[in-house]
Write a structure and sequence with these properties.
The structure holds two protein chains of two kinds.
Chain A (H helix, E strand, L loop, with lengths): L3 H21 L3 H8 L1 H4 L14 H6 L2 H10 L14 H12 L18 H11 L1 H4 L29 H6 L2 H10 L16 H13 L18 E6 L3 H14 L3 E7 L14 E7 L1 H10 L9 E8 L2 E7 L1 H5 L5 H22 L1
Antiparallel strand pairs in A: 1-5, 2-3, 3-4, 4-5
Helix pairs in contact in A: 2-6, 7-11, 10-11, 12-15
Chain B lengths: L1 H14 L5 H4 E6 L3 H14 L3 E7 H7 L7 E7 L1 H10 L9 E8 L2 E7 L1 H5 L7 H19 L3
Antiparallel strand pairs in B: 1-5, 2-3, 3-4, 4-5
Classes of the chains: A alpha+beta, B alpha+beta.
Chain lengths: 351, 150
């Protein structure tokens, strides 16, 4: 036993060393493809997410900015927090992103920028608010999404965002304002005629967003509820007719009425006690797709009527149950409205 | 000391709370064009043992109403026995059945999105764990097959 011990520890040391390269060589390209490409594009051109490959972006940001952005994301702004990735994986992804714009990113000494946030506030209102929002809340919509018409080719990121303020140093913000980002609507404000002192003032104002109490993404009591269910005083047929009237009354169009298992079993075998009513309002849908192209997951709107043990029940999904997965504050607001619509349709039909 | 320790544990649990958001919203980008991706998606769904029950053409409705949009569909699918069991015994899941995947064109490429059905039942219906773990595994396999498009 005594003899075996050193052999075992040698073995362990050996195993440790042969396994080292595995840890060191996390495959950044594969990790990027799996976690990021869906939004930022395979080559960093952008999509639901903003572009990452632009040289001006890459030179303005430090590795720490990239690492912190991956770790914490941008709460409420679609960009998720990747707390499932370990340090080696995050670094591998950063290396992969860096491979698109070879060259050294400018170093950011952690020196704070000294400016006057009060002057900065006025300059911000004049020069920045049109794109980044009057409170720095960012432009509406997502990334550069090519599939739909939009105002700006690239969304202006939220500057009052906890995730952004955590990742970005004063010097990074300053460099972005001084140089702009070629290939995006973000121009150099030095070239626009602002002085370096003006820019310092704006940086101080942007930094002051940190002191504002963040808009809370609170855990609403009903966030975990899967569905709302209402009992109808009418029979199956009458309930469906009443729902149809209520849906049309709320300015929706009926798309289709079908049994829940339609298409899964032979028509003759379908369970006629579970009926889905699909409906839609194309203007609302169009607005929703502009907020987040992924809203297809909520589509089409629907209520389901179920007859069970002599009772007729109407089920509607709780939109908030899904919306938090999207990390999109604008979408949360839409879902709030959608919840109310569902409730008023069903209440009207089952009263 | 104990206080600090429990605070630390609490704080780190906030940051490392097991499942990440990314696992609950499944997404994939494929270099395939939209029509090719549609075909491949339906094949992948069949391969995992599910039936495509319906394809909702969201883009057609939008275009007819005068809005501009690229190709956008919602693919509904399920497995008859599973959908029956879930909808009978767990009526709260009814609005989420059959399962679905949204698929839309972005330029020359195609994006796919689904919510992970397992996420709906985790910590709510422990007796469904193995069933829903299998659904999750199948969905992940579908998304993986869509990503590996070289």
């Amino acid at each position: 036993m005594h003899r075996d011990f050193p052999a075992l520890s040698h073995m362990l040391v050996f195993l440790f060393f042969i396994s080292l390269p595995v840890f060191a060589e996390e495959n950044g390209a594969a990790l990027y493809e799996e976690n990021c490409a869906v939004c930022h594009g395979n080559d960093g051109r952008g999509g639901v997410g903003v572009p990452l490959a632009l040289p001006d972006f890459q030179y303005a940001v430090s590795d720490q900015f990239l690492e912190r952005t991956i770790r914490k994301g941008r709460p409420g702004r679609v960009m998720p927090a990747f707390n499932n990735l370990d340090d080696a994986q995050v670094k591998a992804i950063v290396r992969h992103i860096r491979s698109w714009a070879p060259g050294k990113p400018i170093a950011h000494p952690s020196i704070k920028v000294k400016g006057d946030p009060v002057k900065g506030r006025a300059l911000f209102a004049k020069n920045c608010a049109a794109c980044h929002g009057s409170k720095g809340e960012g432009g509406k919509g997502t990334g550069v999404t090519f599939s739909r018409p939009r105002d700006l080719p690239i969304i202006a990121p939220a500057l009052n965002n906890r995730g952004f303020l955590y990742a970005a140093s004063d010097q990074m913000i300053k460099a972005t304002l001084m140089n702009g980002r070629e290939g995006t609507p973000m121009v150099s404000f030095l070239k626009q005629g602002l002085s370096e002192q003006d820019i310092n003032d704006i940086v101080s104002f942007v930094r002051s967003f940190e002191k504002q109490t963040p808009v809370n993404v609170t855990h609403e009591p009903d966030r975990n509820k899967l569905a709302s269910v209402y009992e109808s005083p009418y029979d199956m047929k009458e309930t469906i007719a009443a729902l149809k009237r209520a849906i049309i009354g709320e300015n929706f169009r009926i798309i289709r009425i079908q049994n829940l298992d339609s298409g899964l079993v032979d028509e003759a075998q379908e369970d006629t006690h579970k009926v889905i009513i699909y409906f839609c309002n194309f203007q609302l849908l169009n607005d929703a797709l502009a907020v987040d192209p992924r809203v297809g997951l909520f589509l089409p709107c629907r209520v389901t009527v179920v007859e069970k043990d002599g009772k007729v029940l109407v089920y509607a999904l709780n939109p908030k149950r899904l919306s938090y997965l999207f990390n999109n504050a604008e979408l949360n607001k839409l879902c709030e409205g959608m919840s109310e619509t569902y409730i008023s349709i069903i209440e009207e039909a089952t009263l | 000391m104990k206080k600090i320790l429990s605070l630390l544990i609490f704080v780190s649990s906030l940051f490392f709370s097991g499942q990440s958001q990314a696992d609950n919203l499944l997404m994939a980008r494929t270099r395939l064009s939209f029509p090719e991706a549609m075909l491949k998606l339906q094949d992948s769904i069949h391969e995992q043992g599910y039936t495509v029950s319906r394809i909702q053409r969201v883009d057609i409705g939008l275009t007819k109403s005068g809005y501009r949009t690229d190709k956008y569909r919602v693919v509904f699918f399920g497995e008859a026995k599973l959908v029956k069991r879930l909808s009978n015994d767990y009526p709260q899941l009814i609005p989420y059945l059959p399962f679905k995947i949204a698929i839309f064109a972005e330029g020359e490429e195609t994006l796919l999105i689904a919510s992970n059905p397992h996420e709906l039942t985790r910590n709510v219906y422990p007796e469904l764990e193995s069933t829903m773990q299998k659904v999750e595994k199948d969905m992940l396999a579908i998304f993986k097959s869509m990503r590996d498009d070289e």
